[in-house]
Design brief:
Helices cover 41% and strands 17% of the residues. The protein is an alpha+beta fold. A hairpin with a 2-residue loop joins β5 and β6. It is elongated. The protein binds zinc ion. The site of zinc ion (ZN) has 8 residues, from loops.
């Protein structure tokens, strides 16, 4: 049986400052090496000061993933030398004196399947190495320490996944949970990274390091399973090793063995005391956590009668569920959900498109209300939505500019209906004996008005004229 376990690193991108100093957690906006201070540069005499919010958010993640949370947490030094690590050690967590990481054992359900969480730890991100030049000769490595000290949670799972599809489903769920908690924006470059371990029936475990995005994680796992199966089928033994993900060539490559034989010489970080997280604090944190995705979904179904599948899609994406929450009323909820899931999701399907979209929740409310009151047809609403996303104009202006409004003028509509009646004598006779077939005539009126006849008024007028 194939076994896959994951180690997921998620930055807490929504925090103001780094894990142990006041530098900005959002390092992405800065020129290289300008978001730094003596603490995150590890200068002699500097002392770390733990970011309380980071501990709180990491604890919330642990609670959300149904993990145990310890009474006390501790930090450790993981010693190693690498150019992106100015202190020559990383401050992280370790369950060596009992469970002292922010999260202990937990469970995440992926459909019917249980994925066990081993632990969750809070740690600092190292800096970034940037390689320039393309030949061995001219290759230059630049170091940018802006990222050094950014708060990171590491989520470790048991090897409970059996195929890349389960991995992808889990990552989707995890991204949604983190985004819904308001702790991380998974779509930011580098916000989510991962290591994976993969073994197939009868083979040794292989670690894959350095996977830079969730998208690549599924690919890396898939590549590694195929590679191992191919070796196995030719009776070549699969050696236990660490491999690196090459994101340009989309393959895993063996790391030189000396990189593996690291002895990190972990010891307690003496500059940070053990932190007690008592039940009172945990209860307070729990009360501050936003409504969970599953409870949102239930509420959408039971309160607004939104179909389960639509509620599922809507609740699992914070961007859309926030829009829904702001735009809906008790009367238009189903319509708002419908517009978001059938039209809007196709229009703003990338981060860039979402960011440049001019649509607000009040636009959305206007559109839903106008459909319900018969001012605008669904099809025209879709066109209007497309315009609003681009230019943010008022719905009423777009309706008049593009002539999208329904034909609701009784006199005008009467004329069109008269002409349909004279063109369709047979259908009129049929409708007289079987009123259900009147819909055929409604359809003809819609055809003539290019779908813009007010449907309710059309039906009423037709009934008056022939029944
Ligand atoms: Zn700093």
């Amino acid at each position: 049986m194939t076994k896959i376990g994951l180690e997921i690193h998620s930055q807490l991108t929504k925090l103001e400052s780094k894990l142990f100093c006041p530098c900005k957690a959002n390092y992405r906006e800065f020129e290289p090496n300008t978001n730094i201070c003596p603490i995150c540069m590890g200068l002699p005499g500097s002392l770390p000061r733990l970011n309380q919010k980071a501990v709180e958010k990491a604890t919330m993640i642990a609670m959300e993933l149904n993990c145990t949370t310890p009474e006390k947490i501790a930090f450790f030094r993981k010693n190693y030398f690498y150019p992106d690590l100015p202190k020559n050690f990383q401050i992280t967590q370790l369950n060596i004196y009992g469970d002292t990481s922010v999260g202990g054992k937990g469970i995440v359900m992926v459909g019917e399947k249980k994925i066990r969480i081993t632990r969750i730890q809070l740690e600092e991100d190292p800096g970034r190495l940037i390689y320039e030049g393309n030949s061995e000769k001219n290759l230059v490595t630049l170091v940018d320490y802006n990222r050094a000290g950014t708060p990171l949670v590491e989520i470790v799972t048991e090897p409970d996944f059996e195929n890349p599809k389960e991995v992808r489903e889990f990552l989707n769920i995890l991204s949604s949970l983190l985004e819904n908690l308001g702790v991380s924006d998974p779509s930011l470059e580098g916000a989510m990274r991962a290591d994976a371990n993969v073994s197939i029936e009868g083979g040794n475990k292989v670690e894959i390091k350095n996977i830079g995005s969730f998208h690549d994680l599924e690919k890396a796992v898939h590549f590694e399973i195929t590679r191992q199966q191919s070796l196995h089928s030719r009776d070549i033994p699969i050696i236990q090793e660490t491999r690196h993900w090459d994101d340009k060539r989309k393959i895993t490559i063996s790391s030189r063995s000396k990189e593996e034989d690291l002895d990190y010489r972990y010891f307690l970080e003496g500059d940070i005391p053990w932190i007690r997280i008592g039940n009172k604090v945990k209860e307070k944190l729990k009360s501050e956590m936003p409504e969970s995705i599953s409870s949102k979904k239930q509420r959408y179904v039971s309160k607004y009668n939104i179909p389960v599948q639509v509620a599922d899609v809507l609740s699992s994406d914070k961007f859309y569920s926030d829009l829904f929450e702001e735009a809906h009323t008790k009367e238009n909820a189903k319509e708002v959900a419908n517009i978001i899931t059938t039209d809007l999701m196709g229009l703003v399907d990338t981060r860039e498109k979402r960011e440049s979209s001019k649509l607000t929740s009040s636009h959305l409310k206007d559109i839903a209300d106008s459909i319900q009151s018969g001012k605008i047809a669904r099809n025209s609403a879709k066109n209007a939505l497309n315009e609003i996303v681009k230019n943010g104009k008022k719905l009423s202006d777009i309706i008049s500019e593009l002539d999208l409004g329904n034909v609701s003028d009784e006199l005008e509509l009467s004329k069109i209906i008269e002409s349909v009646i004279s063109e369709e004598p047979q259908a009129v006779e049929q409708a007289k004996s079987n009123p259900q077939t009147i819909n055929y005539l409604v359809g003809k009126v819609m055809q003539k008005t290019k779908g813009k006849a007010d449907p309710k008024l059309t039906l009423d007028l037709l009934k008056n004229k022939i029944l």
